[in-house]
Design a protein that fits this description.
The chain is an alpha+beta fold. It is built from five helices and eight strands, in the order αββββαβαβαββα.
């Protein structure tokens, strides 16, 4: 009986332990061109040489509302070092977005997602991609957890320090 209880603990404990919501990857980023809220466009390939963080979010997403203030702080802290933060709105009417952007003080470009989430296979919101200076995705995180965000920030700083 003791053996069964030990086996159950070994099998159940990992399911109860919070698992990281991000994955380290090494794959080429898919180039895109997207319309920016307020005018203009951004093409990913034109950001070559910079570390790019693309965050897929929506006005309707409660977890996004928790994460966006941290993204704003990250943008303000690391922009001068070469980080480009892009927010890709998903599923909102364009007229809803400006008030949200103002309320949350979003200092980075907001993209109007016209198929971008589908291009990257995004189904969980928020989802964050970190793309290195060479245009390779190094991290894909789904959902928001403060401890995962802290680890993601460390990865961004490491990529910024790399030649």
């Amino acid at each position: 009986m003791k053996c069964v209880a030990t086996l159950a603990a070994v099998l159940i404990a990992p399911a109860l332990t919070p698992q990281p919501s991000g994955t380290l990857v090494d794959e080429p980023a898919i180039d895109f061109q997207a319309e920016v809220l307020g005018g203009g466009t951004i093409r990913l390939s034109e950001l070559s040489g910079k570390v790019v963080l693309v965050n897929f979010w929506g006005v309707w997403c409660a977890s996004c509302r928790q994460e966006i203030p941290e993204l704003v702080a990250l943008d303000q802290k690391l922009r001068r070092r070469g980080l480009v933060v892009l927010g890709a709105d998903y599923g909102d009417q364009p007229e809803m977005i400006p008030a949200f952007v103002e309320e949350f003080g979003m200092t980075y470009p907001v993209l109007l997602d016209e198929g971008l989430a589908e291009t990257y296979g995004v189904v969980v919101f928020p989802t964050t991609l970190i793309i290195d200076r060479a245009g390779r995705i190094r991290y894909r995180g789904e959902g928001y957890r403060p401890e995962t965000f802290a680890a993601m920030t460390g990865l961004v700083e490491g990529l910024l320090d790399a030649p």
